[in-house]
Amino acid sequence: MLSTNEMIISIVFAVSLAGILAYVFWIQRKQAKAGLTTARPEGAAPASTPLKLQAYERLILLADRIALPNLISRCNQPGLNVREMQNLLVQTIRQEFDHNITQQIYVSPEAWDAIRNLKEQNLLVINQVASYLPETASGQDLNKSLLEMVMQNPKASLHHIVSDALSFEAKKILS
Length: 175
Fold this sequence. Notes:
With 175 residues, the protein is mainly α. The chain has one domain. It is 74% helix and 0% strand. The chain has helices at 4-36, 49-65, 68-75, 82-99, 109-132, 139-152, 159-174. Helix 1 (4-36) runs antiparallel to helix 5 (109-132) and helix 5 (109-132) packs antiparallel against helix 7 (159-174). The longest helix is centred in the N-terminal third of the chain and has 33 residues, at 4-36. Residues 36-41 have low confidence and may be disordered.
């Protein structure tokens, strides 16, 4: 049977691998679509361009706000037990996501899927790490375990991949 750390690392590895594969698929699909689109006349930009760019800006901000290290530093409240901190982190991610849900109409389905996958990955990681801690653990113990996991495997977080993909799409709109 796997130890707690081995289980967490396995879960993070699996989620990371899925994210990387999704990103590669997304890039291939974007390149295929780019070959099918017709070029705009020079200097002509669709009226929706500013809205699309604002949506990508907001989603990049959302990705940054729900990245585990940033989330933990914003939500850190001494005195909470592990379950209370777990609920606070989960609730904060869901609120951030819900606050930006309308942005999906301005971005590509792949970009929205990337944001949704980041949200789901972070919820999964928080819940998995919390489930391995004893009921008597503090919220600080949960935060410490989450940060240690991120520090041990920085590639486990989709945050940077998602941010780069969103930035790439926004730059394509500008060109």
